[in-house]
Design goal:
Length: about 375
């Protein structure tokens, strides 16, 4: 774990990136290099991607135009072999994320060593600088996902996207998918020397796509709550290990029903919220009279959360309505992480019927019962 004192600014320039030209590339300015490097000058890496594929690079290119934020972090790798050390070669890993959960890529970058005899060295890295003041490098290995965060429902099948690309001569590769949840980890799928093994029932990846295009995406059918967690797609070669992290969340949308339980005064409303996951749910009551504005309805009763056999939750809420002389509309509003907009269920509660007061009927009934009792005694 790096401390704040170990974090220094840097610039990463990717060269020879293939992107579709939509007519806007002429508006971009070429990178002009950096001034003479000093202790305060940002470290600039000028890395070629000629040897590897960099898919969906246009997401990076147009991110700022779409209001997205790109974050990049470079870390030094210490497992340099003896043959590289003699050539002033160093390895770095770069991790790039685009806000909105649309793109994440990790790349192993190898510096190219001394470009010419007597080349100046960067004062911090002690690596040779190009005439443009940059550290020349090449991307040797990349692992990328288009979906760093995935939501799915119970019983569904989910596709965890993970693709990679290696430079020629990188050697054989090994794939391991792992799941982490609440501090515990387990292997889900492994692939090596042309053979795959599913350690979670039903998990699979397509071997043909893997060998032809570096597609290590994993499919998980029949999801249950036990599948929720953080999945790690790790690609290993004899020299490097690079991974992507994908968060899988299980979500179930609540089903809301609002109905009138009792019409006797005062009438009672009942709102049931069932089948949702995860647990957090918000229920708000509103009351609205004809021609008026909605106002919060207080004094609602809420039951405790109940859990079904599959792990989803349910909740109920009741409210004594006060329709008033003109009647009122009552709304049960439910918000949940699975919903873009709240679910609103409403019901009209009519005003009390006008007519003879109930007390009059009771008094009249008692009067006739008294007369009947006295008449029976006389007989």
């Amino acid at each position: 774990m790096a401390s704040k004192s170990d974090v220094i600014p840097a610039i990463l320039v990717l060269k020879q990136v293939l992107v579709p030209d939509d007519g806007t590339l002429d508006a971009f300015t070429d990178f002009q290099g950096v001034p003479a490097a000093t202790q305060d000058t940002p470290i600039a890496f000028e890395a070629s991607v000629e040897q590897v594929q960099l898919p969906q690079a246009e997401v990076l290119l147009h991110a700022s135009c779409q209001g997205k934020v790109v974050t990049c972090e470079l870390s030094h790798l210490n497992h340099v072999g003896q043959e590289d050390a003699s050539q002033d070669v160093a390895y770095f890993i770069s991790t790039i994320h685009v806000s909105g959960g649309e793109f994440s890529i990790s790349m192993v970058i190898r510096t190219l060593g001394r470009a010419r005899e007597g080349a100046p060295l960067h004062p911090q890295l002690h690596l040779p600088l190009s005439p443009r003041g940059t550290v020349l490098a090449s991307v040797e290995f990349q692992v990328m996902t288009q979906k760093p965060s995935v939501q799915a429902s119970i019983g569904a099948s989910v596709f965890l996207h993970c693709i990679f690309s290696l430079s020629p001569g990188s050697g054989p590769f090994h794939i391991e998918w792992r799941r982490q949840y609440q501090g515990q980890g387990q292997r889900v799928y492994t692939w090596a020397t042309g053979h795959g093994q599913a350690l979670r029932e039903g998990a699979w990846l397509e071997s043909r796509a893997l060998l032809e295009s570096g597609n290590a995406s994993l499919t998980l059918p029949g999801l249950t709550l036990r599948d929720e967690g953080t999945y790690i797609c790790q690609i290993s070669t004899p020299r490097h290990q690079v991974q992507q992290i994908i968060h899988l969340s299980i979500v179930e949308t609540p089903k809301v029903r609002l109905y009138l339980v009792s019409e006797t005064l005062p009438p009672t409303l009942f709102c049931t919220i069932a089948g949702y996951y995860p647990l957090d749910v918000t229920v708000i009551w509103h009351r609205e009279e004809p021609g008026g504005a909605p106002t919060p309805a207080s004094d609602a009763y809420f039951s405790s959360h109940r859990r079904s056999s599959v792990g989803t939750y349910s909740l109920s809420s009741s409210l004594r309505a006060e329709p008033g002389p003109k009647g009122a509309t009552y709304r049960c509003q439910v918000s949940h992480v699975s919903l873009t907009d709240p679910i609103i269920s409403e019901i009209w509660v009519a005003p009390p019927e006008k007519g003879t007061p109930l007390g009059f009927f009771i008094a009249t009934g008692l009067f006739f019962l008294t007369l009947l009792f006295l008449g029976l005694r006389r007989c």
